[in-house]
Amino acid sequence: MIKIAMYWGAGCGGCDVSLLGLHEKILDLLNEAEIVFWPCAMDFKYEDLEKMEDKSIDVAFYNGGIRTEENEEIAKLLRKKAKILVAYGSCATEGCVIGLANLYDKKDIFETVYLKNETTKNDEKIVPKEETDDLKLPEFLPYLKTLEQVVEVDASIPGCPPPMPVLEDALNALLQGKTKFGKEVALCDECPRKDTKPDKIEISRFYRWHEKEDNGDCFLAQNMICMGPATRAGCGGECISANIPCTGCMGPVPKVRNQGTSMLSAIASLIGEEIDEETEKEIINSIEDFAGTFYKFSTAKLLPEGRLKDES
Amino acid sequence: MSFEPKIVAFLCNWCAYAGADMAGTSRLKYPANVVPIRVMCSGRIDAEFIIDAFEKGADGVFIGGCHPGDCHYVSGNYRARRRVEMVKKLLSQMGVNEKRLRIEWVSATEGKKFATVIEEFVDEIKKLGPSPWRK
Ligand code: SF4
Ligand code: SF4
Ligand code: SF4
Ligand code: FES
Q: A4, A50, A293, B128: most buried, per Cβ within 10 A?
């Protein structure tokens, strides 16, 4: 029996659910593997993990990023106890949406969440404290880190959460001790709309997907930013099939280091050639959120130590 | 000690690099802070090169290409201009002053212009201080 573990760090819980999303296949998994630690689904305490012998877990999955002292501690502990440590999902691999918090300081985050948000009602201005007279909570770290930024990682399963075909393929490989899996091409390659992607695209303004009626063609051809060309294949185009452009949750195609800059460079090349400098600026300015568009899933890799601080 | 910035300059082979060469052969003086990197065309400069240069310790990144209409490969310089505009937006969202990135058109005969814009740029970066990546 192979021993496996799953831990939930700073994430939304969707990754834990995605493992259950295997449905009856989870029974096949349980035929081959014994779950020795999975706090979200079964009753385990950290002590149980501490007591295990080093390297006694065959494959440990870590989902979520590292945002608290506690997340960091468990990441290190799992590294010690596991033979193969796997970053499970986009948060653990690249920081994901919660990594966008690296565009802000810890102070900004606390103020927004507890005091300034329009939906926050907090007349007494209560802000969480890390320490009281008799209680100490794990520290909220200054920025979000990916698993790899904290410990050595043997394999990563991309996706937010990993789409079923990606997960099945990864589990099959990992249970046989293989740490290489997944496709090496871009999403466009398997996109249901790929036949409508023209050879030459000329963009004269960008639309967000709610601003325009979808005609069923390739989103880029419709002047909507679709991260497909810079995103690793595997999901089969889940979002495209739901009539939404890809935002890039599968991360970069292997061998490409930087998904955001490669897509940004590609998009810049698609702006119509005849356009003058003035109009060009307007078109570019119509993209409101550059980090959120091109680095929705990998800001934590772009800003591994949080927001940069230029003096002037 | 006064701050001597490190500037990475990506220069296209046909115009800006030739312009820098011209500045050299005409014995014009410009600051020695610049590390020139020759590329065939400014359109070859991927946004990743710019971010990479900063991550590896550049205080400023300069891109030199042919004047509009003069690019040896027709439209590479327009692509470069668009990328620079977009990377500037990204930089400012990251907390970096977008003045650390500059693009200029320099022809093969404009040795003087090359020396002047580099001098200006170095001054500007001196005022801004070391890159926030280096702090
Ligand atoms: S990768 Fe996505 S689904 Fe998984 S924890 Fe992060 S936000 Fe949730
Ligand atoms: S750009 Fe998007 S919609 Fe177009 S083919 Fe690629 S993945 Fe499909
Ligand atoms: S279409 Fe893009 S964002 Fe959607 S699941 Fe696939 S890779 Fe992720
Ligand atoms: S060759 Fe100089 S910019 Fe293209």
A: A4
